[in-house]
Amino acid sequence: MDISFSIISRGAMVIIYDQKKVVVSGELTFDPPVFYADLSSLRKWEKEDSNGKISDKEKKEILDYFASQNSTPGRTKIIFD
Fold this sequence. Notes:
Blueprint (H helix, E strand, L loop, with lengths): L2 E7 L2 E6 L2 E11 L2 E5 L2 H8 L8 H14 L7 E4 L1
Parallel strand pairs: 4-5
Antiparallel strand pairs: 1-2, 2-3, 3-4
């Protein structure tokens, strides 16, 4: 499993899972630094054929990855809601 991400604006983040890519909408706050990601973006990703569908298992791996990253001091928290 290879997951990377980049916050590209106050309202968007790119997640790359293996070779699959999706832009997730959300909202970035600065104090404290938190990106509130729209969980429905992952649901949309499941239905798109062009970027490759993701399974429920893969979606759980993505959510678990971000949950584990949130405990790292100094990083922007990513919260899916």
